[in-house]
Write a structure and sequence with these properties.
By secondary structure, this protein is mainly α. Helices cover 52% and strands 5% of the residues. The protein is built from seven helices and two strands; from the N terminus they run H-H-H-E-H-H-H-E-H. The chain has a two-stranded antiparallel sheet. Helix 1 runs antiparallel to helix 2 and helix 3 packs across helix 7. The longest helix is centred in the middle third of the chain and has 11 residues. It is globular.
Length: 110
């Protein structure tokens, strides 16, 4: 399944483009702009599985760094600071990774 099966290609391009500058990423604004916040839980779970590149059932810090590339190959890598900010926002149980339930909460809180 491709990200564009779930989200509009135009919304993805606009959202990724809005955070093209280094140190500009804000997950709350991004999830809203890309249309993820409006999706139901099943679609949010599908997005999670696309972003979980190694199929571990978690989005780890090394996968978070490339989250924008998960939406489009043109996306930039997040900085270490942006990655850690996103991880701390989503990692509710402190295990150093974001599980599917944590991802659903992260999107809902955006």
């Amino acid at each position: 399944m491709a990200m564009t099966d779930l989200l509009s290609a135009a919304d993805i391009k606009k959202a990724v483009g809005a955070f093209a500058a280094a140190e500009s990423f804000c997950h709350k604004k991004f999830f809203d702009m890309v249309g993820l916040k409006k999706k139901n839980q099943e679609d949010v779970k599908k997005v999670f599985h696309i972003l979980d590149k190694d199929r571990s059932g978690f989005i780890e810090e090394d996968e978070l760094k490339f989250i924008l590339k998960g939406f489009t190959p043109d996306g930039r890598d997040l900085s270490d600071k942006e990655t850690k900010t996103l991880l701390s926002a989503g990692d509710k149980d402190g295990d150093g990774k974001i599980g599917i339930d944590e991802f659903i909460i992260l999107v809902a809180e955006s």
